């Protein structure tokens, strides 16, 4: 997570990455790149979610995905030649590249899941749409960035103007509502036939309920599931605006410098879905955004209660079915119409409405993953992250651990005094 040396205004909106924005722990991070399939074999979703099968039809060529995030390092092997344009809206970066601060790895991990091209034969991370192009818009995150809302709005507009047909937002405002500047930007995307994909957020960071932009009508909100296809306890959130679900646990991504990490969170589920959207757009260029979204939700594997529900949305994404199945055309986006929402909900405002209030922003501590084979490292929260999120469950557990240690030490000291007392009698 990035911070700027400026005071946060009282009405500032704090945004947070919806996936685990983490610092690496252990010697595995920075280790030499794998030469075999140690990394590739960890991408279980490529087979389990019909992605490899869909590649017999298309790999996403001709479609541009915008990554609005902390910036993307296009020099890593997986993304070399994939990033075609970039812009910074935070004031601290350069042309959509990572700023180099805390958490700058997040955008690169997200991009690698969406459209990574691998690092040679059967090596490195392959994204869901490895032939798609990427553009990167870097924005600021955290309570210290009072312009987050406007930066995201500007990044959405820039992405549309630079040819994106899919926009990925692996972030959450952590509130149900959103500012009016987003009305304008997201309507601009809708009117230009762009599919917007947004992460739901994570219970592990305190986000129990899906937050904006995944609450906005027409946006494809993405929930997260375990490797067994069950709604993730920590790496997902609950809400009636969920559209689809995808893997959010034990994900492998690449970070600046070319090392690999395991991570959890809907920040990773979202680009998997964004990649599937790119595959559908490449296979069916005649479809508008509403029909692309409809094709994805109509071919999903239903989970939970019959029909769409607040844990899985319409179900688990199936790339092969979304690309191949005959799906009747629709005339409206099954996830709603932002124009209609604005007409109904903003029309009664006679005076300028105040900016939507920001919620308490937290970031998830990852679920402990199985010890990976070298060179993939395991992630833990960074000290800066813990300062920003306040006292999540992880910190409470740490405090209890320290308290237990103090109590144990006191008991041992008391026993020692008693023993000395016996010897002096």
Per-chain topology:
Elements: E1 16-17, E2 22-25, H1 45-48, H2 51-54, E3 64-69, E4 83-88, H3 105-115, E5 133-138, H4 148-161, E6 166-169, E7 171-172, H5 180-191, E8 195-199, E9 220-225, E10 242-247, E11 251-254, E12 260-263, H6 266-283, H7 289-298, H8 319-324, H9 338-345, E13 376-381, H10 383-389, H11 393-424
Parallel strand pairs: 3-5, 3-6, 4-5, 6-8, 8-9, 9-10, 12-13
Antiparallel strand pairs: 1-7, 2-13, 11-12
Helix pairs in contact: 3-6, 4-5, 6-7
Please describe what this structure looks like.
By secondary structure, the chain is α/β, with parallel strands linked by helices. The protein folds into two domains: 16-390, Rossmann fold, CATH 3.40.50; 392-425. The chain is 30% helix and 14% strand. The protein is built from eleven helices and 13 strands. The chain has helices at 45-48, 51-54, 105-115, 148-161, 180-191, 266-283, 289-298, 319-324, 338-345, 383-389, 393-424; strands spanning 16-17, 22-25, 64-69, 83-88, 133-138, 166-169, 171-172, 195-199, 220-225, 242-247, 251-254, 260-263, 376-381. Helix 3 (105-115) runs parallel beside helix 6, helix 4 packs parallel to helix 5 and helix 6 crosses helix 7. The termini are far apart. Mean pLDDT is 80; it is low at 1-17, 19-36, 350-355, 359-375 and 377-397.
């Amino acid at each position: 997570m990035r911070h700027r040396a400026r005071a946060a205004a009282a009405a500032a909106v704090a945004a947070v990455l919806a996936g685990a924005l983490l610092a690496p722990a252990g010697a595995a991070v920075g280790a030499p790149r794998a030469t075999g399939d140690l990394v590739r074999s960890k991408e279980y979703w490529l087979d389990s979610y019909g992605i490899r099968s869909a590649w017999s039809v298309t790999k996403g060529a001709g479609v541009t995905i915008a990554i609005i995030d902390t910036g993307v390092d296009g020099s890593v092997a997986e993304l070399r030649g994939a990033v075609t344009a970039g812009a910074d809206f935070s004031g601290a970066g350069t042309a959509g590249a990572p700023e180099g601060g805390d958490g700058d790895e997040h955008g690169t991990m997200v991009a690698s899941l969406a459209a990574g091209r691998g690092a040679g034969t059967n090596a490195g991370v392959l994204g869901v749409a490895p032939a798609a192009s990427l553009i990167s818009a870097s924005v600021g995150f955290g309570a210290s960035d009072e312009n987050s809302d406007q930066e995201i709005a500007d990044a959405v507009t820039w992405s549309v103007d630079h040819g994106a047909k899919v926009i990925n937002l692996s972030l959450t405002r952590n509130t149900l509502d959103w500012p009016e500047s987003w009305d304008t930007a997201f309507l601009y995307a809708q009117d230009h036939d762009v599919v917007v994909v947004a992460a739901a957020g994570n219970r592990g960071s305190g986000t129990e309920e899906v937050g904006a932009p995944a609450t906005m009508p027409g946006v494809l909100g993405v929930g997260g599931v375990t490797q067994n296809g069950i709604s993730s306890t920590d790496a997902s959130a609950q809400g009636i605006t969920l559209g689809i679900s995808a893997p959010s646990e034990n994900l492998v991504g690449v970070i600046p410098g070319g090392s690999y990490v395991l991570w959890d969170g809907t920040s990773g589920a979202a680009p998997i879905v964004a990649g599937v959207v790119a595959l559908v757009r490449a296979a069916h260029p005649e479809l508008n955004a509403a029909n692309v979204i409809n094709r994805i939700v109509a071919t999903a594997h239903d989970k939970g209660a019959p029909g769409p529900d607040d844990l899985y949305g319409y179900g688990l994404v199936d790339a092969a079915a979304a690309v191949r199945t005959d799906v009747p055309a629709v005339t409206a986006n099954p996830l709603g119409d932002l124009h209609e929402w604005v007409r109904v909900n903003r029309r009664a405002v006679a005076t300028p409405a105040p900016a939507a209030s920001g919620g308490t922003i937290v970031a998830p501590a990852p679920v402990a993953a199985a010890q990976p084979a070298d060179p993939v490292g395991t992630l833990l929260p960074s000290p800066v992250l813990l300062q920003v999120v306040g006292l999540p469950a992880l910190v409470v557990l740490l405090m209890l651990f320290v308290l237990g240690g103090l109590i144990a030490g006191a008991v041992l000291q008391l026993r020692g005094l008693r023993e000395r007392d016996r010897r002096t009698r």
